[in-house]
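Lecture notes, unit on protein representations.

Consider one protein chain, 382 amino acids long.
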Amino acid sequence: MNKVYLDNAATTQVRENVIAKMHEALSNFYGNPSSTHSYGRSAKTGIETARKTIAKYLRAQPSEIIFTSGGTEADNMILRGAVRDLGVGTIITSRIEHHAVLHTAEELSLDAGVKLRFVRLDAFGNPELAHLEELLKIDDTKKLVSLMHVNNEIGNKIDIDAICQICHEYHALFHSDTVQSIGHYEWDVQKTPADFLTAAAHKFHGPKGVGFAYIKKKNGFRPMISGGAQERGFRAGTESFHNIVGLEEAFVAAYDKLEVEKNYIEELKKYFIDGLVREIPGVVFNGHSGDIAKSTYSLVNVRLPIGKEKGMMVLFHLDLKGIACSKGSACQSGSDSGSHVLSEILSGQELEKPSLRFSFSLYNTKEELDYVIGILKEFIDN
């Protein structure tokens, strides 16, 4: 049986050089980074080197990079800190954000009395910038806008530069969940001056359980986790040294090879789109995922021309054939509630048809895509 992994938006295969770097860290640099002896100093040096490396690529200050357990923690840290420490009284977001943002904002609305407002979306799932401006004008409360750069389900890319400009014009803070874009797109926080960004290593061929928050300096945040002075006082707890150096190794590889790997993966996406359109009449691409210019190069979200009853078996059938993909984000794949993203942009009739997310990486091939298209066609035709 062929084995084809097309769920890279959920997590990616770890690069061999990253595994080697982490093995070296686990074997040779096991000192506690907070210890003052040579073992501890070696680990501490490795962490600070990683921080400087990431900051250099983002054109940030090293002090603005805070290591976390991943994107979810980073999103929580930023939203909760903005309300608790920066006086934010209104959060403006969209209904198709990752649940790390949506659920946190909802909790802050219930528990802290924060006003929660949602920007309108167009038919493809893009935030309407004119409506965002209207929301920013409503009252004088301090506002935080939280809009993800690349949607993890439909792949839409927002105009993040325009949103930054609007937020700063109205003196609002801007946070973007960039988990699906850091490691896949060039970032310069001087040119795109967001106040907060988030990243997760396992989205760009690094280890799970580690990521970082970019938090613009002089923000006034207090620690979200108390108990020690690690991460410049932002996050107590012994640092996961092997994960941090693994993140650094994956981050550097992602950017040093960005253009070559981006072009390769984008060609795979084009090939897959063309093959689906040719072999499966009636297939539809959700959001802007079928448009190379308006969506990320690494995923498509397709709606298949079959009914609900047959559609309930498609993911199971693909799995039996060795094909890994997703009906939505991995964070909600165990839920029967369906995709909250698609529910916002599709009609009830459209939601009756099954939608699947296929996401690509440098480890995929056109031969694999041919196999997947063939299996899908066979399933739909029979």
